[in-house]
What does this fold into?
Amino acid sequence: MLTSNEISTIYDTNFEKIYRFFYYRFMSKDIAEDLSSETFVQFIQNIKKTPDTIIDPQKYLFGVAKNVYMIHLRHKYHQIPTYDVEKEQEFGSQVDEFLDEIDSSDTIEEIAMKFIVKLPDRQREIADLRFIQKLSLTEICQKLDKNMNYVKTTQRRAIKSLKEIVANEMLYN
Amino acid sequence: MKKIDKDQNFINKFDKKASMPDPVFRYHLKQQVLAEFEKQNFFSRLLNKFTPIQIGALSFASTCLVLFTAFIIVSVYTQKSTLTIGDLGKGISEGEKSVILRNIYSVNPINQISPETALNSNGYQTVDARNSIENLNSNSANTQLTLFQYQTLKQTYNYGDKAQLCDALTNLPHPSKTESYMAANNLTNQYYIKNTSYDENGQLIRAYQADDEKRIEYMGGEYAIRTTVSAPLPNVTTDNTLKSINATITEQYINGKKYYVVSNNEDVSFCTGLSTDAPTMKIINQILVDSETYKVTNSKYYIDSISDSNLILDIKSEYTDGFAVWEMLKDNFIQIPVQIREDSMTITPKYPFGIVIPKSADYLITNTTYTNNAGLASHYFDRAFYPAGSAGDKLMYAQLVNSNTSISAAYGVVVRDSNTHTSLKMTVQTPASNNSTSEGVNTPQSITIDIDGQKVAAKYYDYDENVLEFVYKDCKYVLTYTDDLYTIPQFTYIAL
It folds into this structure.
């Protein structure tokens, strides 16, 4: 049976990683707070139910986090994500790798670009001009010789797709 | 400028600083986690003080105590026999569930079973009432030429603590009471509909009355409009069969009478704003249904979870049924408190009306509306037709936003796949218009779709919402997918 001190240590060591993982996945502080709370509360509840079967609490915590993440994905995007069983055991290290990659980027644009490159052609073009090259909507219209409706709607689609790519990226790549 | 800021905000979310947790939240969650853990430890420690035999004895004593308490409670409630003593949660098979849902949908106005209609309809039921007339007729054993079968429905609206979170409710003047009176004689094809909505002071805020010759509409403004109808309103048939929707049903007994409790939840955006990008909010709908008549007697709408503090709206419904002769109905016409102006508009629907729906059996038509633009050309654009003040401004705005002002006559249909939550909106315009809804936005792809085995040329626009346009049986169809569908579904045509 774990002690309060051990629970405290597990929380201190892993909270920030789990929170930031959820934040980047769903680009929302509110969702990150909700999902991190859910992860830790479920973790404690499961420890209560089966205290002797949890061999590696930290690994188990990330298993719960993965489960919370997948349920939220299903709810948000109405799809059942496929998941590589081989990687399932290493969810904690995947989170570490993901955050390391983010933290090794020097600028916001560099982080954003990791995801923008995965957009479909037209959306990528607009997202690049808008977010990376910082052109105004009018400038983009002139540059591409397109009307404002096209640029606005494509930008909206790009943001929507970008959110989905960021949320699902770990599962599908 | 605002838009630019919003775009910039989006990219700023990638910032590392933005991804760091709030220290206050971090601290509080830790306290909560440790408290949760300590709670468990308290019982563990307590149990560790006893031997297994003592624990067994304690368990036996506790069980006896629980059973005795339960016996006392049941005895007391049985004697009173006025409170709910139901057998909640009794298992209902999928087959039974499907029959129950179909019956509920076929006998009730949609505002009692759909969160969107209930929270957005503002208590107004025009087309719904027309559908109810058809239900009235289909259930009628009436064989006399002079008798009308009628049904009245009184609904009382009570708004909960969370009503203010729903824009759809706060944007428009909402009723505290509505009354509907529907009567029909299917032998003579005569019908009569009256809907009235009142505010909390008992003032009439909206009225709608229609029969097979005329209709009167009052929106709370300086005057009402009477329209003479040159042709009968076309029948609107709605396939209200619920297919594989994720509803749960339990049985409940109240005063010895069996009711069904149907709970369903839906992520909706209309509560948070008019924009299609508005964030969604989980609305839980719980309805209480008479197991004999399948009439909804109570509809409650909650946000997030079922609890009194999360209540948005509680609608109580009372019904009466009977037969009346025309002379009695005439006395039932609404007393409109303002001048009634005559409108020269005539409704001349061009047949055949019809709709196409995806062939997938999982699709469900959830809403059908009929609009005719001739009426919109006059009084709907007149500010005086609506109530004074900001409530009237909002009502006029909502009315115009919700109406398609560019077509002469149309059906609007919302089709939803309850499994994937994918939905599409459809307008059917007649006569076929040459105006392209999507002209100037993007270059369409020319594709061919299949309707009942016929190949039909269509234009497919790929922009924020995918749009499919085609002409079939003299009508122009415009389908807007509210979610990406990468394959174009095949369609079935349904004549109305």
User: Anything to note?
Assistant: Residues 148-172 of chain A form the longest helix (25 residues). DSSP finds nine helices and no strands in chain A.
